Amino acid sequence: MHSPKRRTTLLLLLASSSALAGPNEVSSSPPSAPLQDWQLSGVIQGRYDSYHVSGDSRSAPYPYLGSQGYGSFSLDARRTLSAYERLNTQLAGTLNRSEYRGVQGGILERARMEWTKGDAAMPFRLELGDVYSLHSQRTLQRGMKGMQLEVQNGAADTSHSLLLTAGRAAPTWRGLNVNREDFLAASWVLQSKAWGDFILSSVNANRQRPNGAADIRQWSGGLGWAKDMQLASQRWQVEAELTRLSGDTSAYAARRDAAQYFSLDGHDAALPLQYNLRFEKNGSAYQPLGGAVTANQKAASGQLRWRFDNGMAITGRLQSYRDGWDKLAGIVNPVGVNTDIGGITLSGRLPEVLSGNVNMDMQSQNRLADDGSQHLKNHAIRADFSHTLPAGMGLRWGVFDMTVHDLRNGVITNTREPSVSLSKRFQAGTLNGSGSLGVVRRNVSGANPAQSSWAPTLQLQLASGAHSFGFSYNFLHARANSGILELFNRQTAFRYQYRSGSHEFSVDGDLLQRNPMGNLATRAWRVGLGYSFHFEQMPADVNATPPASHVAAPASADLSERDLTLISPGTLLADAETLLIHWGAGAASRNGNLLSFDYPWFPNIAAPQQLLLEHQTGAVVRVGIQVDLQDQTPAEVQRLYARIRESLLRQFGPPTLAIEEGSFTDNWGDDLAVGRFRYLMDWQTAQGRVRLGIPQRVDGQRMVEVAVTPAGAPALNERNWSLERVR
Q1: Which of 98, 231, 236, 338 could cross-link with 68 by S-S, CB 3.0 to 4.6 Å?
Q2: Distance CA 511, CA 475 (A)
C-alpha cells in the first residue's frame, strides 16, 4: 500500500501555520499588474528528425522514414496568495507531425490546476485536469484526466483525510471518448499517533471495450494499515493491506477475488543493520483496472544488510514467486510456476592501497513448472571493480558468469563475459572532458550452436562554456563457433548542444550498420535538430536572497530518514559526504569533480546501483542514482521499475507529472531509442525537482535513473536529462 503520511503533511503544515499567524493573513503588497505575482517557468521546443534506411529494412529500428517533426511547449505557473494558500497551473501541448509521437496534429497533452488552502475551516487541496490518483497500489494508482479533492481535519494526536477522485484514463485530451476507462474513487485516512495510520479505499471502474463487446465493470476496495514501531533498539515501519475485487476482468465475468500485502522495513539503532520483509498474494481474478499488481501471483522476499566500519556492506536476500497458484473450477488455468531466488551482494570501498570500489553479486535461481514442462536452475556471479588512478584516470573491470541448467532437456549453457574499460577526465582551460575505452568479451557454450562475441566501445564527453558534445561508438562482432553464422554491428551516436541564456540548440544523430555474412546488410541513420527556449519569471515581491545550503543530519538521525533531496544541487559537498557516510554509503570513488558510490539506495533491487555527485567550488551541482539494466529481461525491467516507482511514491506521494507510454516488450530498447517508449515521473519539492525515468542516452546504455534538479517546469519531450555526462 501507499503510506498515507505523505497525503496529509502539506495541508497540516499549512493549517498549523495558519493557527499560529491568525486566519486569512494575506500579503500587504500593493495591487500589481496581471501575472506579476506569479512565478512562471516553461520551455518551448521544436524538433526535426530525418530517418533513412537502406538494405534489409526488417532489421532497422526505424519503422517510419523521411521527415518527422513536432513543436511543443510546457508551462508551470505558481502563485502564493498567502502563507497558507497556493495556486499551481501546468500546461503542455504538442503540434505533431511525427509518426513517433503518435497522434498527429495539435494535441493538448497536459492541463492541470491545483489549489491548496490550509487556512480554511477544513484545509483542502483541489486538483483539476491531469491528476495522478494514488489511493492504494492494489486499487487505484495511475494518471487520469478529471478532478481530485482532498479535505483534512484533525488535532495533534488524530487527523483525518478524505480523498475523492473522478476521472478518465487517456494519454492526451484529444480522443477522450475512445477506449474509455472511467474511475470514481474515494479513500479515507485516519492518522493516530497511538494506533498508526488506517486507509479505507473504494474504487468503481468501467472500461469500454471495442467492437460492441460488453464493458468491463468492477469494484475494488480494501483496508490498509501503517505504523512506525520500536522494540528495544529495533525501529520498524510496518504496512499491511487487505483488498477485494468484485465484477468483470479482461478474462472473467462477474468474479470475486482478493489480494493481501504485508511489509516490514527495519533497522537497528545501535548496530549498522538493515532488513526488510515482503509478502504479497493476488488471486487469479484480482485484476483491478487501476491497480499496479500482478494477478495470480504469490510473492515473498526478505533481505538483510550489514555495513562494516570500513564502508563495506554485505547484503543477503531470498525471494520466492509462485505464478498460476490460484486454480478456478471450470476455467482453463495457467500452469503454475515456482521461482526461488537466493543471493549475496558485497559492495563498498576497497582497502585504501587499492583505491577503488567493489560490487560483487552471487545469485542462484530455481524455476520449476507444476507439470514438469520446465525446470531451470541458474547460477550467476557478477563482480565489478573500479579503481581511481593518477592523473584523472579510472579503471573498471569485471566478469559475469552464468550457468543455466535445463534439467528437463538435459542441456547446460554457460555464459562468461569479462569486461574492462579505462576512463580519463581532463581539463584544458575552459574545456572539461571525459572519455572511456572498453571492451566486452562474451562466450556462450552449451548452446546450439555455441556463440562468441567481442564488443569494443568508445565514449567521449566534452564541455566548454555553453558548448557540450557527446560521442559514442559501439562495435560488435558475433559468430557461431561452427562458422556458419557471423555478424558485424556498428552503432555510432553523437549529440552537440549549445546554450546561450534562454536559448538551447542541439544537433544529434545515430548510425546503425548491420552486416550479417551471407545475408543482406542494413544501414539505418537519423539526424535531428532541436531548439528550446527556456523562460522564467519570479514574483515581483520575491526575496532575492538565495537560500542557505543544507546541512548534514546529526549523528543521531534515523537511518530510515534517507532523502535524496537533502543533497540536492547547492548542498555543500562536505555536508553531502557526511550525510551519505551516515546513511551507510561508505567512501566514494573520486574522479575529477565526480564522486560515485556503489550503494544500494533501493534495498529491494538486486541490480547494480550507483549514486553520483557532480560538484564544483565545494557545492553539489548534480545528484542522482543509476540502476543498470544490463542482462535484464523485459519482465525484469518492468518489475524493477515498478519497485523503484513504488519506493518514490511512498516517500514523495503523488507526482506532479506522470508519463508512461510504451510496453516492456522484447523491442522496448528500440522503442526507447526512437521515442516511442517514455517512462517519466516528476515530483516538485521544496528542495528541487525529483525525476524518475528511463532516459535516452547517447551511449545507448539502458538505465533507470533518479535525478534531483532545481525546481522549474519540466520539458515533457526532453531527450538528454540522463546523468551520463557526469560518468
Answers
A1: 98
A2: 12
Name, in order, each residue with C-beta under 8 angstroms of 636's C-beta and a sequence gap of 6 or more. Answer: none
| Vertex 355: Cα angle to 353 and 360 (nearest 5) | 110
Asked if residue 379 has pLDDT above 50, the reply is yes
| Omega within 30 of 0 (cis) for the link into 449 | yes
CB 385 within 8 A of CB 358: yes
The phi and psi torsions of 13 (rounded to 5 degrees) equal: -65, -45
The grid coordinates of residue 590 equal 573520486
Strand-strand pairing, 158-168 and 181-192: antiparallel
3-state SS assignment for residue 646: helix
pTM exceeds 0.70, yes or no: yes
- The helix or strand, by DSSP H or E, that contains position 577, with its residue range, turns out to be helix 573-583
Report the alpha-carbon distance of residue 632 to residue 193 in Å, rounded.
42
Strands, E, within 121-195: which ranges? 124-136, 140-154, 158-168, 181-192
DSSP of 239-285: EEEEEEEEE--SS-SSEEEEEEEEEEEEEESSSSEEEEEEEEEE-TT
Question: Amino acid identity, residue 37?
Answer: D
Per-residue DSSP letters for 113-131? EEEEESSSSS-EEEEEEEE
Q: Which residue has the cell 572532458?
A: 433
Which cell numbers hold the place of 118? Answer: 490550509
Helix (H) or strand (E) holding 495: strand 486-500
Nearest Cα to 399, choosing from 387, 422, 383?
Answer: 383
| pLDDT tens readout for residues 505-522 | 999 999 999 999 878 899
Alpha-carbon dihedral sign for residues 17, 19, 21, 24: positive
| Exposure string over 648-669, b if 16+ CB within 10 A, otherwise e | bbbbbbbbbbbbbebebeeebb
Beta strands 619-628 and 158-168 are unpaired
pLDDT single digits (tens) 133-176: 989 889 999 889 999 999 988 776 888 999 999 999 987 888 77
Angle at 660 between CA 659 and CA 665, to 5 degrees: 155
**Which of 101-110, 159-168, 574-583 shows the highest mean pLDDT?**
159-168
pLDDT band at 226 (very low <50, low <70, confident <90, very high): very high
Contact 13, 6 (CB under 8 A): no
Phi and psi angles of residue 292, each rounded to the nearest 5 degrees, phi first: -130, 65
